[in-house]
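Reviewers asked in the last cycle whether our approach scales beyond single polypeptides. To address this, we selected a multi-component target totalling 563 residues and predicted its structure end to end. The input consisted of the following lines:
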Amino acid sequence: MKAVWSITKKELMQYFSSPIAYIVVAIFVLLSGFFFYSLIWWFNSQAIQMAQNPYYSQQVNINQMVFAPLFHNLSIIMLLMLPLLSMRLFSEEKKMGTEELLFTSPVSVTQIILGKYLASLLILLLMLLLSAIPTIFTFVYGNPEPLPYLLGYLGLFLLGAAFLGLGLFWSSLTENQIVSAVLTFGTLLLFWVLSWVGYSARGLWQDVLNYLSFFEHFDGLTRGILDTSDLVYYLSFAFLGLFLTHSTIQSRRWR
Amino acid sequence: MIETQGLTKKYGDLVAIKNLSFKVEKGKIWGLLGPNAAGKTTTMRILTGYLPATEGKAIVAGYDVFEQPDEVKKVIGYLPETVPLYPDLTVEAYLGFVAEIKRVPASRKKAAVDRAVEITGLQPVRKRLIKNISRGYKQRVGIAQALIHNPQVIILDEPTIGLDPKQIVEIRQLIKSLKGEHTIILSTHILAEVKEVCDGVVIINEGQLRASGYLDELAKSYSQNDGVYLKLNRLDQETLNLFRQISGLKKAEIEGPEIKLEWSWDTDLRPQVLRLCLDKGLVVKEMRPLAADIEDLYLRIVSGGMEQ
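The resulting structure, written as structure tokens, was:
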């Protein structure tokens, strides 16, 4: 575990000694703030109108009207931005020749992968925590349901963890960071659009395509429904990314 | 300390090294010599556990590289050809990280960094970002990371490549200062480096071992005779005839501005030669050994004229 933490610390130092982490975190927080502000603005105007009608006033729900769309927006921003975090993880080591240092040190490939992955997860966590700061005020001035809110953030974290696992894998395949980011982005988009194809498919295909889509599993969490199959899906996806990374590195060295 | 037995590495159909066997004794500096693409880097990568061999065995400090890679990695310090640096870290942060992954205990980490910084003369740049220091300092940082855990074995892949003459001298001095406490293998194709720094060499070409041993032993086996080149105040047949009277002398001839004297390897006629010069009033301007130079040796071995 000490070796994993050493790698994590090194990755974090690298993230924060270059502009990449600051830019990704800042843009994410800025965009999330903008979306939150827009949604709250829209929610206020809707709530004022709906309050005049006793029937509609029952349906004013900040979780459904602000947080659910906010989480969906954030998930799309993550799809665009997380490949920028994961692209350097192994590509840079290959390009700089530093993987020779790592692989000739008494640390295992698994420890190296986990250390790098953990660092990217910590940046993701930082992004989500910072983006959550403005939303906390809704609890001060209103009464949203905490469970869907917390599950929404858990969903975002799991979604990000899956994205980063996939990004880690692509970065282990190439020494070009742009190629790594584009491949990650392309794959994530593919999994995103699977649900669209799923809508027009029928029978088993529809089930399979919907199951594979990132965002189908995300919906339940934003509505406050904790389904273990969704958790298993995201964790399996992240694990698959790490496993493929491990296999890629080992196969390259033993070729 | 280091031993390889029948080491072979194939990349698909390409044979990078073939049946390579050699030994390096403890505390010695050994040069791995060969032209470009001879298999030097592949050999080093196998010894450090970075690459697996296709066949054969490698033992480092008593550990089998393939059976006990973690043990081997703990006792080896390695400077790859491309110095493995993180430009965005400071020298100190980088060395601290390397100390951690080389399993230096936390309580000794600071001392290990201080020691590596001191040995390699990095004090002036220890707080600076690696991307902002000179090429020579970067090379020193590379050597410092190889030393950080005070390894028994140090493997340096072309440690002086790309440096200016002053930096080359400094790095060679540094490597020589590590002798005794550490066993060192360094790869190079600079013959002067081998002559100055190494006790012995392994010469490889096209992935195959061409010669291996102590420099003086190789030179002896290369040449049948020992002898000297003499530059005197006189250069004529009469002087040559004077030397021919020395018992045991096999050959005396004029070669350019010098007289070349040869005798058998098992004798040393230098005292007799000098005494004769004194007795006959000959002024010795210069005397240099005839022994085969590493340049001659290398060129003959690599061009396939000789196998040991």
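The two ends of chain A are 29 Å apart (CA to CA). We regard this as preliminary and will revisit it once experimental data from Aim 1 are available.
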